[in-house]
Predict the structure.
Amino acid sequence: MSAPHTESAPRQGDQVLGPRAGRWATPALAVGVLGLAAALGLGWQRGDGFSRLQHSWLVACAFFLTLSLGGLFFVIIQHLTRAGWSVVVRRVAELVAANTAVVALLFAPLVLGVLLSNDGLYPWADAERVHGNPLLSAKAAFLDPRFFAARCIVYFAVWWLLGRWLLARSTEQDRVSGPEPTLALERRSAPAMAAFALSLNFAGFDLIMSVNPTWYSTIFGVYIFGGSVMSFFAAAVLALRFLQSRGFLTREVSVEHYHDLGKFLFAFVFFWGYIAFSQFMLIWYADLPEETFWFKTRMEGPWAAVSWVLLFGHFVLPFLGLLSRHAKRRLALLTLWAVWLLAMHAVDLFWLVMPSAETSGVLVSPMDLASFAAVGGFWIFSLLRLARGRSLLPVGDPRLPQSLAFENF
Amino acid sequence: MTVSDTSRLVLDEPYARPILVDGARDLASITDRVCGVVERPTPPRAWYVAITITSCLTLMLFAMVGYLIATGVGVWGNNSPAFWGWDIVNFVFWVGIAHAGTLISAILFLLRQKWRTSINRAAEAMTLFAVCCAGLYPAVHVGRVWVAYWLFPVPNQMQMWPNFRSPLLWDVFAVSTYATVSLLFWYMGLLPDLATLRDRATSGLKRGLYGFFALGWCGSARHWQRFERAYLILAALATPLVLSVHSVVSFDFAVSQVPGWHTTIFPPYFVAGAIFSGFGMVVTTMVPARELFGLKELITLRHLENMNKVILATGSIVGLAYATEFFIAWYGGNPYERFVFLNRALGPYWWAYWLMIFCNVVAPQFLWIKKIRTNLLFMFVISIFVNIGMWLERFVIVVTSLTRDYIPSSWGYFKPTAVDVCTFVGTIGLFLTLFLLFCRFLPMVAIAEVKTILPAAHGHGAHGKHGGEGRPGREVSHG
């Protein structure tokens, strides 16, 4: 149990990655560059005007973006509820949440494609196609390339500003003795949550739902939210395990904190299942052709198998697997589920986007792996750059002693 | 405003957890204070006035239900094209109210929100009473009330089985499961306090009754160990139920093809709305009740402020859901769907729609201001708006869609009858009567649970107040 460590506050220097961040960042950057080169090469070789590659790229960007957005939600709600238990794991979340600029940069080519009327990913980007389709022309005011680009800028600006502000204030608390930065975080966290909810909800419609511009579902933003937060908790478990294996936060983060992260992971597995079921059941039951076609493509042919994988892999099995207290406190087991659920989150995003590009035959292309490596490499590189000079523990947080002494029983 | 009230206007010092109850700093005074409400020889005069009015309203409800059973469902305003009217509106309204109690007792328990201990007992009681009011409507709407048991899959010789494909039947299971678990949860939490009342009872009758319901609780370590286990398990079971009940209620509408009803966001949006309305009702009742029964030191301004924050958060979620619905109605491109939403805002029920927007979306936004959310009068008025707004929400959903169907020749305008109005007012009477009886005869505040959050319970009283100096209080949790 963690109680005995409470007396000695850890020193800041102990918990800074420093030059080690550089040592891990270089291979990440290399993976990113190689992945990018491979993705571009494979996309060019395909000869479809990079349409397939754009889909892969969207899935990869969405995967790492949702990790950051889940982290953003976590950090904001910790301040909003003045949580004590989570202080020792919060800096890692803050770093993940602040790491959205790199995704904005990587996502920019897709927006540029839309502006250049490239309909390889978003069919509504082609004005002629929209003109010929009454369903699309009815919503042309919204699915307009320039308006879309403007909205993307707003979304990423909101996320980037929120993430950086939360991180800056929290690191400021490391240096000053009074509680002012923490109080400022508490005060601003409610409007931050409102900005987060609005931006995530509509970004879900824009970035992912509009790949199928005639399909619509009001719950879609909530669905993306559920997956985002779940994937963040899985990533947080893995990040902490990695840092602890390298000697960081070893005395500060205890099994008690993992247990709580595991509870939230379990809760959001359940929440995702609830939202996914609601969306599916209501559309299936009402049986309206303008809605069901989206599920029909996912329930027939090669995609049916992926749907089953999601049902069991993203919901039933992890639900049963994470139910017991034992599973959440046995770190090897929890880590296994975290890896599994991150993989399932990737499958989920793939399942949302890719049936538009792959209607038959081969599902996974090497391009998908290359895109994933590219975005992932750059994302981790950028994360390590952010983390390099900062303490991994909010050493000045007024609630740090509560977090260090935290116990479940 | 007292000194302690003024200090609430600034944020808490983050170095230590604040003490959640005022005044009653020792364990015995909490018992005295809560039991005092039940043990005083006569209740306050206001209680008599209130229960006289509410029981008259309850009698009116019974008269209306009797009249309905004797005459038929035609006494209500339901008629083509609005085959559902106030009955389902009121059903959904009351089920929504029933959400705060279990949220406070189960979900806030799992989230270690210790402030819940002062309000969970009363809120859970309201859950049960609201479920009673809700259950009444479908029960009498079936027309032939004497065969209402056909809703359950009871084997019988007629080969009649319920239609399991109907969400109305799912409601029967969802609501009855919720009622059962909520009742068990509430009753189990009551056991230690019933035993306290038994031990303090002065008359044999009281001792006998409280003793009977206390199930032989003697406060042994073994009892407490089992109690906490069971509490955790029931909390874990009740948590998904809080989500499922109103989700299933929303399916009543959302599985259909009626424009304005069929939309996928309904389940989480209904749940958020239910929590919103439930907390609205808890504030509406607790603001006067804590004054009336002298519980201001246990149910403090902080508790009310926290509830107001939940109202603000859930009200904003509801507002976002309205906006999303409206946006997708346009984005989806379905002309019927677009028409329904324009019709809500500009059609014959425009007044209901804009009043709903004002009550549910605009009014709670005032709670951003700390001075307002810690002012009893303002919060009471806003909570009334929330109650009205959430009733109107269900009215708008049910009536605007039904009276503007696909075929203009079948359009209509719904008008409630006097029986509709009297039945609804009667359920308010029933709800308040049960609540007043609860306040008089059962401990309104969970005595044993409140004691666990006092600094004295952790053996370091002084540190609770000035935790920054020494070893801070340990975070104790279950879960």
Q: What stands out?
A: Chain A has one domain: 19-404. Chain A is about 75% helix and 0% strand. The radius of gyration of chain A is 22 Å. The longest helix of chain A spans residues 255-286.
